[in-house]
Amino acid sequence: MMSQQKRRPFCALVSGYLGPCKLNLEELDLSYNGFEGSLPACLNNLTSLRLLDLSGNDFRGTIPSSLFSNLKSLEYISLSHNHFEGSIYFGSLFNHSKLEVFEISSNNKYLKVETENPTLSFPLFQLKILRLSNCTLNWPSWDVPGFLSSQHDLRKVDLSHNNITGHIPTWLLDNNTKLEYLSFGSNSLTGVLDLPSNSKHSHMLLLDFSSNYIHGELPSFIGSIFPRLEVLNLSRNALQGSIPTSMGDMKQLLSLDLSNNNLSGQLPEHMMMGCISLFALKLSNNNLHGTLPTKSNLTGLSYLYLDSNNFLGEISRGFLNSSSLEALDISSNSLWGQIPHWIGDFSTLKILNLSRNYLDGAVPTGFCKLNELHFLDLSHNKIGPTLPSCANLTNMKFLHLESNELRGPIPVVLAKATSLVTLDLGDNSLSSPIPPWISLLSNLRFLLMKGNQLGDSIPIHLCHLKSISILDLSHNHFSGPIPSCLDDINFGRDVALMDDTFSRNQLIPTGTKTYSYQSQLSRFVDMDISYKASTENEKIVFITKRRSESYMGNILHFMSGLDLSGNELTGPIPPKIGNLTRIHTLNFSYNQLTGSIPQTFSNLKEIESLDLSHNKLIGEIPPQMIELNNLAVFTVVHNNLSGKLPERKAQFATFEESSYEGNPLLCGLPLKQSCTPINAPPAVKPPVSINRENRSCKAIFLWSFGGSYGVAFLGIVAFLYLNSSYRELLFYFIGEHVPFLRLRG
Predict the structure, then answer these.
(1) What pairs with residue 129 in β-bridges?
(2) C-alpha pair distances (Å), 172 with each of 138, 226, 517, 649
């Protein structure tokens, strides 16, 4: 039905449904219907219209300046989540005295909004809801809309993602005592958070000044002036000082995000005991210190992020009464000791990150009770030597155990982790071959085992993991040939549409509050109060272009690579490797590979980094490789390659001599060795008849040369025989200077 509707002109569609009643229409809600094209001018004919909601469509182009000129009865306008461009003159609405709600949240940054009216200083309306988000607001001054100073009945103000400059407009709080929702997130506000200490904003539910340039300390009384606050987000600023103790006075606080600031000091005990409704607490990337709390009253806490601070000591029991904990991240601190066995008492835990601490010892058997766990990061500790055999990994998707002290064979309990997307066992001391059960992990996209002591040949059952995008087996002891079946693996050839496979965003469910729109429409307006405290996205570390890179979030859908460097592989490079047409990185360096570079490598159209150095490759570099237009890093140093280098075109024009050194038989630019000797005539094979003549002349020369020496020798002998004085002088000289003849005499 809707596919047919979209083919019809908008005005014709409205006329078809409304018929002669359209002029008396008071409410028109066409939100989220997939309409396309420009806004129709026929809307201006609906003079009785009080509610107009066109949000969530695919309208494009400009918003006509005359669109609302005749619609003096409008109380509610929502144009959010479309693709408008050009400019909208909000000041043209200043004489719409009944207007209470105006919303535009653009899907792009191409819509310019000018909020002032030079002929009318103050509007005739008193707004309740104003949402101007993700626009180019008041360019080029980027000021806070000045008309807001005349508004005194605001309930919701959302001016996020607009690059607004200037100081924090705290006067909005003073002027609008019923304000419930105030968001200036992702702007360029500066200054300190200067809140009046003598007022109490008992209606305020959400306050968001995240991602600005606010500095200074938090007001010590912040908790007492917002007694009903449910969401406080001041993340990504430059706040300093300690967390105010008065935070504990906010009994209804659900989400607190102070991450990515310069806060210091310890966690206030009053906050840990007083914020009894807290659902999400995010204090990541600060300078907080001290030990973890030994007690808390956060019984409803589900998401706790204390990562990237300076907490030290052992992991305490302070959060044990948070029985509904789903995400715990205390990574990148200075915690020591063993992982406590009671960690398994968090039966609802889905995400656990203890990485980059000083934890040691074995993984406790308490882990066996964590049946819901789907993300586990214990990397960069001293944990070992293996995993408990009772661990339930059936729901595990992301497992990071790199840089620990795991030893022996790859833990067989991993065979049960059939949902794994990421398995990182790199930089441990694992040994023995890769087991056959690895083929059971059919959902794997990232398999990282570098820096271990794994040996034997690369097993062909790896080729059954067809979804792999990144495979890193570098710096082990693998020997034998490279399996030609590796071309059965995806390596980016089947890039799927975006899904939530790699995202650990939305870890905290989004809750909404509704605000009853007090008008004759009795409409409920979504307040968009979101209780998100998302963690970082899934992150993979992989060496490409000669440096270690971190890939995370959506980029993982497009990254692919194969690293077999630093092993003992032999034999030729299989030509089928050239079928990996979407791969970005290939590294076969520091092996003992022989044979030539396959000509099929010219099919690697997406390759960005190709390292074949330190092998025993021979022959020419295929000239067709100049077609690899994305190749940024190429090295074949220290092989036995020969012949002329590929023509210096496209990317090959950027590669210097350092890419080819250690191959003395290579020639051509950029090498100093020319493929044609300087000042030497080209070698021409002489005809057969000339060769025969040359051989005859050479024989005559040798006979004449020998005869001349013979005649000269006989002449000397005859001369000595006839002249006795010269003969005696010769014998005397021989007797004095040739000892063995003298002794014999």
Answers:
(1) 101, 156
(2) 18, 15, 20, 62
How far is 231 from 263, CA to CA, in rounded Å?
A: 19
Contacts of 739 (CB under 8 A, 6+ apart): none
Residue where the block lists tokens 């799927």: 496
Give the Cα-Cα-Cα angle 63, 64, 69 (nearest 5 degrees). 120
What pTM was estimated for this model as a whole?
0.84
Instruction: Count CB-CB contacts under 10 A for residue 158.
Output: 24
CB of 317 closer than 8 Å to CB of 293: no
What single-letter DSSP state applies at residue 300?
Answer: T
For the chain, the average pLDDT equals 86
Tokens read off for 520: 């004759």
User: Would the CA dihedral through 335, 340, 342, 348 be positive or negative?
Assistant: positive
Cβ proximity of 140 and 164 under 8 Å: no
Quickly count: other Cβ atoms within 10 Å of residue 478's Cβ. Answer: 23
Instruction: Please give the Cα distance from 342 to 161 (Å, whole number).
Output: 43
Helix/strand/coil (H/E/C) assignment for every residue in 60-128? EECCCCCCCCCCCCCCEEECCCCEECEEEEHHHHCCCCCCCEEEEECCCCCEEEECCCCCCCCCCCCCC
Q: What is the dihedral of CA 705, 710, 713, 718, to 10 degrees?
A: -140
Taking the domains of the chain in order of start, what are their residue ranges?
A: 7-165, 433-502+539-676
Distance from chain centroid for Cα 726: 100
Residues 6+ apart with CB under 8 A from 680: none
The CATH topology of domain 7-165 is 3.80.10
Say what the pLDDT of residue 718 is: 59
Between CA 606 and CA 611, with CA 608 as vertex, the angle to 5 degrees is 125
104-126 confidence digits (pLDDT tens): 998 888 889 988 877 777 899 99
State the Cα–Cα distance between residues 555 and 559, nearest whole angstrom.
Answer: 6
Contact 251, 275 (CB under 8 A): yes
- Cα angle, residue 269 at apex, residues 264 and 270 outer, rounded to 5°: 110
pLDDT beneath 50: ranges in the chain? 1-7, 496-536, 684, 688-690, 693, 741-745
CB contact set of 211 (below 8 Å; sequence gap of 6+): 185, 186, 187, 235, 236, 237
CATH number at 433-502+539-676: 3.80.10.10
Say if residues 442 and 467 touch (Cβ distance below 8 Å): yes
Element (H, E) at 712: helix 688-722
CB-based contact 217:238 (threshold 8 Å): no
DSSP string, 254-288: -EEE--SS--EEPPPHHHHHH-TT--EEE--SSEE
